[in-house]
Amino acid sequence: MKKSHIIALVMIVVSGFLIFNLGEESSSYDSFATARERAKVGDSKSTHVVGKLKKDAMGEIVGLEYNPQVNPNLSKFILVDTLQQEEMVTLYQPLPPDLAKSDRVVVIGKFQNDKFIADEVLLKCPSKYEETEVK
């Protein structure tokens, strides 16, 4: 075999290995119900859940728990997913600064002991994407 053929075969094997491993680590977009069922059957992969923060009639966030004086690395909030299911989300990180301003929230995590533990929170702020009129 030529040296170029060997190099090409090695590159194909390495590419296949990377694609396979990245596919294993990728997560999916789910509802809280689907994420809970996945956890019950022993699936330990993280999942993305998209939703909105639960707010009262005045627009204030309901169920927000964050006290940086007691524990700056513990945040809890209620997220309502796309199927209108509410779930308390626990984040072992400081509260994202623009959480209250966000239109939609994506939490990446999984259920552990019947609690949704988020590893990461992604925010979408509507004002950042709105068109403004130029005068």
Characterise the protein shown here.
The radius of gyration is 20 Å and the shape is elongated. Helix content is 27%, strand content 32%. The longest helix has 23 residues, at 3-25. Strands 2-4-5-7-6 form a five-stranded mixed beta barrel. It has 135 residues and is of the alpha+beta class. The mean pLDDT is 84. Helix 2 links the parallel strand 1 and strand 2. It is built from three helices and seven strands; from the N terminus they run αβαββββββα. 16% of the residues are buried. It has a single domain, classed as Beta Barrel (OB fold (Dihydrolipoamide Acetyltransferase, E2P)), CATH 2.40.50.
Short description:
By secondary structure, the protein is of the alpha+beta class. Helix content is 27%, strand content 32%.
For CATH, the homologous superfamily is named as Nucleic acid-binding proteins
CATH class: Mainly Beta
Radius of gyration: 20 Å
Biggest sheet statistics? 5 strands, mixed, barrel
Number of helices: 3
Q: In whole angstroms, how far apart are the ends? A: 69 Å
Question: From the 3D coordinates, which CATH architecture would you assign?
Answer: Beta Barrel
Structural class: alpha+beta
